[in-house]
Amino acid sequence: MKIEVDKGSGFCFGVVEAIRRAEERLESDQLLYCLGDIVHNNSEVERLRSKGLTTISQEQFFTMHDTTVLLRAHGEPPEIYNYALANNIKLIDATCPVVLKLQRRILKSYQGGNKDDTQLVIYGKKGHAEVNGLVGQTNGEALVVEGIEDLDQLDYTRPIVLYSQTTKGLDGLHHLSGEMKKRAVNVPVKIHDTICRQVANRIPGIRKFAVRFDLVIFVSGKKSSNGKMLFDICSSVNANTKFISELNEIEQKWLNNIDSVGICGATSTPMQLLEEVADYLRKLPTD
Ligand code: SF4
């Protein structure tokens, strides 16, 4: 059986840098707190936990003082920085530069938007850490839309400015912005395509990859936004695409009457895990 790992998969630079910052710190300290899982991947979280990286929740963070906390690539809202300042918490800020730039753009739009009653809209997943950080730039006022079904919340008599969460798909953004423009006939609608190209540029490659195999195993954490989106892309070109987060989710019956398997994943899936999946499959008995 032919088994191939997608060379275009693996961590994006934002995740690589956050992990580098964590490991650098853990060389001199045995314990470092991270606000939320550093990456949507259990095996990587576990690997770093064994080195001393301890995930804390927001609730825990807001009880802490006099310590050091790493902020992951997703970014955080201003209240996190304000609390840290007031409570002597040193922050190691690994917010991805792409997210940081987007936060600054949204803040600038928010500060300039009151003059003409502009509505700030974010296309993203409600409650996702990155989206919370973006909404935080607007004092919680930006509206988050996940799809067409959320567009009724908007007031089409006021100007609209739309930004996208970095890991959304371009097709979804175009679909949503087209519908918004249809509804807002007499007011300006400004669309900012702020999708990260680390994700968007993977789409053509992963499409070409997925179509070549009898079976595709897509590996990602269940909470990963880009994981869900890239999985949907693979499924759209290869109906025999399976989503797994851990090796033990692989079912032997998937391999019946199969001659080739492609393995790929999200920007938060370590290449090492994809290689482990490949090794695991190579060792499985086949009929
Ligand atoms: S997907 Fe893009 S924006 Fe998100 S962490 Fe990776 S490089 Fe940064």
The CATH class of the largest domain is identified as Alpha Beta
User: What is the average per-residue confidence, as pLDDT, rounded to a whole number?
Assistant: 94
Distance between the termini: 11 Å
Share of helical residues: 25-40%
Number of domains: 3
Fold-level CATH name of the largest domain: Cobalt-precorrin-4 Transmethylase, domain 1
Order of helices and strands: EHEHEHEHEHEHEEHEHHEHEEH
Bound molecules: iron/sulfur cluster
Main-sheet strand order equals 1-12-10-11
Number of strands: 12
Subunit organisation of the chains: single chain
Q: Count of helical segments? A: 11
> Low-confidence runs (pLDDT<50, min 5 residues)?
none
Examine the secondary-structure arrangement and name the CATH architecture of the largest domain.
3-Layer(aba) Sandwich
Largest sheet at a glance?
4 strands, parallel
Based on helices, strands and strand pairing, what is the structural class?
alpha/beta
User: Using only CA atoms, what is the Rg?
Assistant: 21 Å
Strand content: 15-25%
**Shape assignment:** flat
CATH superfamily of the largest domain: 4-hydroxy-3-methylbut-2-enyl diphosphate reductase, catalytic domain
